[in-house]
């Protein structure tokens, strides 16, 4: 049961975006195969030109399909007993719990982007050596507050 003092972080892959990515991926693969297959088969000198374009279309469409199928919605719920991390995609839901005694450190994490401002989150270093990166926060100040609150709530770790 969650209390009002719980902290929630989420990184969503909206259903509409998932549907659009799946439809675009399917369309790209279908168009590439239907339109370019006659130029690639039977093998001949022209296959050297059409083949790479066909492979590229199938690869891009396949990546969009993979994103639609395997893209995750991640929700972190932080409370006094630990951090519940729920990952959900089209294939199912997985949930893990990180207890305070599993944590070694909590650090600030910055993602630098070329096309937009940098985003910030936190990184949890676990005793097992694993690193968990949180969903992005709205600003650096919010990520710093979250890091400090997390350190205080979970036993004053580094």
Uncertain stretches of 5 or more adjacent residues: none
State the helicity in percent bands: 40-55%
The total of beta strands comes to 7
Largest sheet data: 4 strands, antiparallel
Determine the N-to-C terminus distance. Answer: 28 Å
Strand content: 25-35%
Provide the gyration radius in Å: 22 Å
Number of helices: 3
N-to-C series of helices and strands: EHHEEEEEEH
Structural class: alpha+beta
Please state the overall shape, judged from the principal axes of the Cα atoms: elongated
Question: What's the arrangement of strands in the largest beta sheet?
Answer: 1-2-3-4
Oligomer: single chain
Structure description:
By secondary structure, the chain is an alpha+beta fold. Helix content is 41%, strand content 30%. The protein is built from 3 helices and 7 strands; from the N terminus they run βααββββββα. It has helices spanning 15-40, 47-70, 140-153, and strands spanning 7-11, 73-79, 82-89, 92-98, 103-111, 119-126, 131-133. The strands form 2 sheets. Strands 1-2-3-4 form a 4-stranded antiparallel sheet, with helices on one face. Strands 5-6-7 form a 3-stranded antiparallel sheet. The chain is elongated, with a radius of gyration of 22 Å. The chain starts with 6 loop residues before the first strand and ends in a 5-residue tail after the last helix.
């Amino acid at each position: 049961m969650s209390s009002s003092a719980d902290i929630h972080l989420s990184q969503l892959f909206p259903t509409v975006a998932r549907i659009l990515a799946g439809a675009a991926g399917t369309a790209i693969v279908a168009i590439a195969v239907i339109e370019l297959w006659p130029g690639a088969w039977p093998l001949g000198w022209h296959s050297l030109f059409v083949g790479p374009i066909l492979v590229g279309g199938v690869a891009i469409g396949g990546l969009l399909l993979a994103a639609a199928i395997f893209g995750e919605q991640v929700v972190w719920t932080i409370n006094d007993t630990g951090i519940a991390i729920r990952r959900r995609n089209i294939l199912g839901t997985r949930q893990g719990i990180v207890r305070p005694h599993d944590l070694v450190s909590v650090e600030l994490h910055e993602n630098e982007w070329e096309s937009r401002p940098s985003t910030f989150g936190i990184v949890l270093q676990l005793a097992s050596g694993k690193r968990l990166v949180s969903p992005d926060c709205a600003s650096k100040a919010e990520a710093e507050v979250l890091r400090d609150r997390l350190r205080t709530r979970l036993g004053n770790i580094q």
